[in-house]
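Question:
Write out your own:
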Amino acid sequence: MSTASSLNTPSMAGPTPKSLDDTPPHNSAPSQSAPDVGRPGDKFLLVFILVYVLLMPVASALTRPTGYFSLFLDQVYGPRDTQSILMVVGLAAFHTYSFSAVVSVYGQSSHPGGYQVRSPRLVKSQLRGLPHRLVATHEALMDVFPLLGTTAAFVLATHSLAKNTTGSPSVTLIDGLFLYAFVKHILYYIVYLADIPDLRSPLHTFSVSALLSVLYELYRGSA
């Protein structure tokens, strides 16, 4: 076999990539489609959704008049009324859109090139460690704040359907909002920054379940 013909023979290793962008990642999926089988993540997803529902009675029990969290609020806060709802939402809004937002910008400024005014979102994906968590906590609070605002609005709008003897919205409903703020804006925020993922996800789940329990209590009161 001549040297010329051997040079013209295609390589069995495939064409040489033109650049690193042409090189597929080492863990890329094969070209052939895998059989449609149940993945472990599918079952995990169903279990996680079930956990949200199962934690609702726990949150509701904590916010009953004799619940541990309500008794705690009696000692550290005092009587709750409509103004308490506005205070919870206001503090949560300040923490979400002011305090954590400034902390997020501080985290982004740790980038070697400093804070990128022209493309801040591109820089976020390049952060690691504490700067990344400073940004991620802000985004995590923003993700759930609309649910808090919606729930609080329903409590205020339907308070005539769930009144206690003072004519204010049920203390159980108000304490549910307090419970969410305490878990999400204090415990969850601290745990996320401290990089304790084993506690971070359960705290997030429980905080959302607290709001879901408030909505369920409203539904029961209006049914």
